[in-house]
Amino acid sequence: MFDGTWLPTACGSLAPALIPPAHMVILWYFWENYSRYVDRHFCTCSCWDTVFKGPYESGVAAYKHMYFNATPNSFKMWILTVFAVIALYECIKRLIALILQQRVRYSMLVLFLLSIFSHYYAWWAYINYYNDDYYNQWNHQLFFTITELFSTVLVMHLASATNVVKPKKVFCIVGIALLHILAGSFDQFFINVVRGEGAAHQVVRDIGFMLPDLLHLFIPLWLLRKARNESFSTRPFYRDRKLHRDIRILLGAYEEIHGKIKPAQDAALMLLNHYRMLANSNVHN
């Protein structure tokens, strides 16, 4: 009989190992024309403090495949990477275990796999912020990262078929997805994809953000409807008082954050102006 106890650990280890090389291949594909020839025999680097080489090398250093300085930002980049690798490893390991136990919700598995891109993008953005000492977009990216993490926690929770599908959980995922869609629609997605003004890598990136958000909007609603049908709930949505209560709670949370719920048109204009300013100042895109 096939012993699959090792499979979750193996898959969890492969994901963090394979994604960064794939990232480098994709970058090379899009940005090959920007690459420079490096003469390994005569190049030097005077920006390296050579601390990790100790007495073996000091001063202006020769070629290295990787340099790093002994600074607080290097420590932060390392800690961020360790936590990211462990989180990805544990998530993949848990999902594979659920598959082997036949307790996985494949709809949630799809959502998790689609969310990997946005989380990896966030990790790479923070690495570059720390590495370049560039923090103009920090708060902007932090908002999306926190909401994406919260959504993914709920997706991982619902990935187990033993966990009950409740409206509160679904509406949190849907609300975050809707917020991201509205922000993206009036931000770079409209400019780069709809108007066709973006470079190839920007179009691919923005589609990679928008498609998962759309599926995070529709798939949880489909799952909620399916769960209600399986529980023999005959009350339609508009007559379900618990559902109305959960919606009011969700809207109340938004109202508490934003002060009041603005009309859709005013909110759209506000988002458009806000993200245009951010896009104009974003020199890292």
Walkthrough of the structure:
The protein is mostly helical and 285 residues long. 68% of the residues lie in helices and 0% in strands. The chain has helices at 7-31, 72-100, 106-132, 138-158, 167-185, 188-194, 200-230, 241-258, 264-281. Helix 5 crosses helix 8. The protein is globular and about 70 Å long. It starts with 6 loop residues before the first helix and ends with a helix. The relative contact order is 0.09. Residues 260-265 have low confidence and may be disordered.
Beta-strand portion reads: under 5%
State the shape.
Answer: globular
The ordered H/E elements are HHHHHHHHH
Mean model confidence by pLDDT = 81
Q: Helix fraction?
A: 55-70%
Task: Please describe the biggest sheet, giving its number of strands, its sense, and whether it closes into a barrel.
Answer: none
Instruction: Report the strand count.
Output: 0
Count, helices: 9
Weakly predicted, low-confidence segments: 260-265
Distance between the termini: 51 Å
| Class from secondary-structure proportions | mainly alpha
Radius of gyration: 23 Å
Topology:
Blueprint: H1 7-31, H2 72-100, H3 106-132, H4 138-158, H5 167-185, H6 188-194, H7 200-230, H8 241-258, H9 264-281
Helix pairs in contact: 1-2, 2-3, 3-4, 3-7, 4-5, 5-7, 5-8, 6-7
Nutshell version of this structure?
The chain is an all-alpha fold and 285 residues long. The chain has nine helices and no strands.
